[in-house]
Design goal:
Layout lengths: L4 E2 L2 H21 L6 E7 L3 H17 L2 E7 L5 H12 L6 E4 L9 H7 L11 H8 L8 H12 L8 E5 L6 H9 L8 E5 L6 H5 L4 E4 L16 E5 L3 E4 L7 E4 L4 H4 L3 E4 L6 H25 L1
Parallel strand pairs: 1-11, 2-3, 2-4, 5-6, 5-7, 7-8, 8-11
Antiparallel strand pairs: 9-10
Helix pairs in contact: 1-10, 2-10, 6-7, 6-10
């Protein structure tokens, strides 16, 4: 049993936001372009609205411009694609995201591919993902990028370590496995990517020095699946009814925190772990978009 170091996404994201705010001040002083992030919200999903509002607030905090494009749930795919084209062609907007999930009548893949790779600050476009695979400069997917920054901030050793990723989504699991294997820090891990069809999962997780859990199942990872001294990063977030809370619910992750934490050297909590880092990464990507556009215009 050990006393784990809590990997706080709040602490790391606050530091990143402070750094970005200073950079924005420097841009203002030299008369440069102030970064502008836009978000497209289709429909009235409560969790999506909360998340988008947090992004707008974060933009204000660091001095970015921000726009929120609200569209009805009944909007056609064609009309949404026209809106995306308009944002692609708006020189004032440096980066934008289309908040997922989208209504069922809209093809999310088609929408993702319609976003200009130059403004794809979510890092979901095939061009962005392809550049990441080749280790070329690109917009990294926001959540994996956030996790990388957390590992860096806490100087968590990664070289030569066995990293097990649970979950293979295109948004977290798959890109995470690529980032942890690349020849840099954080990275240089031997990576095992596991998922719902993996056999002998417990056998594999018990070998892990670093566990990144993004399976989407509440409290899936239990203490008997974790070796002593491991680093555990919990990507999941779930609302569980709880009558003792004022809100009527509490938030938990994919990791059974209370029983897993005593075995860990480092562990991220839910809430307050990976969540805040996703927004910080979006801000970093938007700043990169401005720098990239400036570079392109000077060539």
């Amino acid at each position: 049993m050990c006393q784990p170091i809590i990997v706080s996404g709040i602490e790391v994201s606050d530091k990143i936001k402070q750094d970005i705010a200073q950079e924005v001040e420097a841009i203002k002083l030299r008369g440069g372009k102030i970064p502008h992030l836009a978000a497209v919200l289709v429909g009235n999903d409560g969790a999506s609205q909360t998340y988008v509002n947090a992004k707008v607030k974060a933009c204000e905090l660091v001095g970015f411009g921000s726009s929120l494009v609200r569209l009805p749930e009944t909007i056609s795919e064609t009309e949404l694609l026209k809106e995306i084209e308009r944002l692609n062609n708006n020189d004032n907007i440096d980066g934008f995201i289309v908040q997922l999930p989208l209504p069922k009548h809209i093809d999310e893949q088609k929408v993702t591919q319609a976003i200009s790779p130059l403004k794809d600050v979510d890092g979901f476009h095939p061009v962005s993902l392809g550049k990441m695979v080749l280790d070329l400069p690109s917009f990294l997917p926001a959540t994996p990028y956030g996790i990388v920054e957390m590992l860096r901030h806490y100087n968590i050793p990664t070289e030569g370590k066995h990293c097990v990723v649970i979950g293979r989504s295109h948004i977290v699991g798959s890109p995470m496995s690529i980032l942890m294997a690349r020849n840099s820090y954080p990275g240089n891990c031997t990576v095992t990517l596991t998922h719902s069809r993996t056999k002998n999962l417990k056998e594999i997780t018990l070998q892990a020095d670093i566990l990144i859990v993004a399976i989407g199942k509440p409290e899936f990872l239990t203490a008997d699946m974790v070796k002593d001294g491991a680093t555990v990063i919990d990507v999941g977030i779930h609302r569980i009814e709880d009558a003792t809370k004022k809100s009527g619910y509490r938030l938990i992750g994919d990791v059974k925190f209370d029983e897993v934490a005593p075995k860990c050297a480092f562990i991220s909590p839910v809430p307050g772990g990976v969540g805040p880092m996703t927004i910080a990464s979006l801000l970093k990507n938007t700043l990169l978009a401005v720098e990239t556009h400036d570079y392109a215009s000077q060539k």
